[in-house]
Design a protein that fits this description.
Layout (H helix, E strand, L loop, with lengths): L9 H8 L2 H9 L5 H9 L6 H13 L3 H8 L11 H4 L1 H15 L12 H15 L4 H25 L4
Helix pairs in contact: 2-3, 3-4, 4-9, 5-9, 7-8
């Protein structure tokens, strides 16, 4: 198949050849940062998924504190298994409210690689731990979590971009 001799796959080919505005809109679903989406779009085509993820990381590391804050406005609670929020509604809401009061934005965390049965404990442990951070340390942790979320979403985006 043309293009696959270099190790690319059909979904990545679809991302690489999509019109720039379509690729940009799709990237904004991974991380709501226009500059990040523009930079990742501008460097296409990517020879393989690791190259795309590396470029996404590099672009995310360059985000200013204001751009991170803008991206955070479009984030929501982490996706946990069905019924999780109902089971731990009070504890999670209290922790999230304390976090938002202290840091001024929603708590973000990637749960990629965490088993569904451990996701709630992982989130609650992390939010309690991160509440002890000073604002500058938490800004750095939050930016790293946004990068992890963007990379996970980017993998999903490329996986579902195929024919």
């Amino acid at each position: 198949m043309p293009g696959q001799s270099r190790g690319t796959c059909a979904p990545l080919d679809a991302f690489n050849t999509a019109p720039a505005e379509s690729a940009r809109r799709a990237l904004l679903t991974c991380l709501h940062s226009p500059r990040w989406a523009d930079r990742v779009t501008a460097h296409r085509p990517y020879p393989d998924l690791p190259s795309l993820l590396a470029a996404a990381d590099e672009a995310a590391y360059d985000l200013t504190p204001r751009e991170v804050a803008q991206a955070l406005t479009r984030e929501s609670l982490p996706h946990l298994p069905p019924g999780t929020y109902e089971a731990a509604h009070t504890a999670l809401n209290a922790a999230c409210a304390a976090y938002e009061a202290k840091f001024g934005h929603v708590f973000v965390i990637s749960v990629n690689g965490v088993s569904p049965g451990e996701a709630l404990d992982h989130v609650l442990t992390a939010i309690r731990s991160r509440l002890a951070n000073d604002p500058e340390d938490e800004r750095q942790v939050t930016a790293e979590e946004l990068r992890r979320l963007a990379k996970g979403r980017l993998v999903e985006l490329v996986a579902h971009a195929g024919p």
